[in-house]
Amino acid sequence: MAEDTKLFGMKAESGRWIFILLGFVINICLGSVYAFSVFKIPLQNWFLTTHKVTVGSFEGILPFMIFLMFFAILMFFGGRVLDRLGPKKIGIIGGILVGLGWILAGILPNIWPSIWAVVITYGMIGGGGVGLAYGGPIAVAARWFPDKKGLAVGLTLAGFGGSPFISANVASALIKAVNPLNTFIFMGIAFVIIVILLSLFLKFPVTGWKPAGWTPKATGVTAAAELSTSEMVKTPTFWGLFLAFTIGSLAGLMAIGISSPVGTEVIKLDAAAAAVLVGVFAIFNGLGRPLFGWLTDRITPRWAALINLAIICVAAVFMLQAGAGTMPLYVACFCALWLCLGGWLAIAPTATTIFFGARHYARNYGVVFFSYGIGAILGSIISGLAKDIFGDYSKAFMITASLAAVAIILVIFLMKPFKKA
User: Fold this and answer.
1) pLDDT at position 357, please?
2) Which residues contact 272 (CB under 8 A, 6 or more apart)?
3) Could you tell me how far CA 95 lies from the centroid of its own chain?
4) Which one of 113, 206, 286, 324 is most buried, by most CB atoms within 10 A?
5) What's the confidence (pLDDT) of residue 221?
């Protein structure tokens, strides 16, 4: 069967790499949420100068937080219908919602001058669209690469993490030229076209397909039983993965949300330099996916998770020493935190397949992915309260380091394969 399968005019073993490229580009569009910090201050200034509406710092981050929350929620529902609708249809639906959310975010605030207009359009509609479209390329990569799941998923998702390297620069230039609202519209039009066109080519292999000459390793773990979602959530392995993913997401998303403010307020960089560094951090976020995907394949999800969490813990501890002029320390620590968030977005889906099987992957990972949404909310609350109550971000890094240490213990004792009864 493997030898006769053709993809894009090539043998499947070669043609399947096209799906990685398609998923990578789709994820560049979907991952533009990580460039929201470029919009935050211009949006606040636009509301103030155009409508005399003051948008506070916490209110200004609400669209980002709500986007990630709806991303996680719709990821769950998308996973439940992915097998029935297929990656092409779910990608088209998600692409329409992504574009619609961005476009309406550029229109509604002129009619309803409130940050909630952006929260509803960009955050809820756009975030929900990303949640639907996100799972398709991952599932396609995992099924076409049973021999290299971690690497394939990591490369596919590298576009999501590295997106701000492109989208932040594009958005920054457009905001200066045409204001933030028109930037939402222009980018939304581009996203809806790109995501829909590329989703047309996504498809799953036939049941039982595998690369020629490849034989799965016998692991002896319950993945062979293909656990359903109800069975998965009763296992200690699930809770180890879920809680560790929550803490890893919390640390990374908190870093993403405060990268620019820490650079300007703590390290005393100018705004332009801080913006450039956000693009640099995004590269590491993108690299984290294939790196930790490869590590997951090589040394198991458990050991990849332990390395990831150890890096988070060390980076958070070192950030307690940050101050004016400590740019090398700041860059190294934030590169590490962005890298580790990208890493979790490769570790978690691969671990879900390895621990609980591929048959119910879409639904199972939809549940696991709630960790990401919880992490987004907790990370925003921790960083926001640390700044509002204590006047700086040091307490946020203390909490992050402590939670990472807890997660290491959880991974050691819970996140490991369990033998079949």
Assistant:
1) 86
2) none
3) 17
4) 286
5) 44
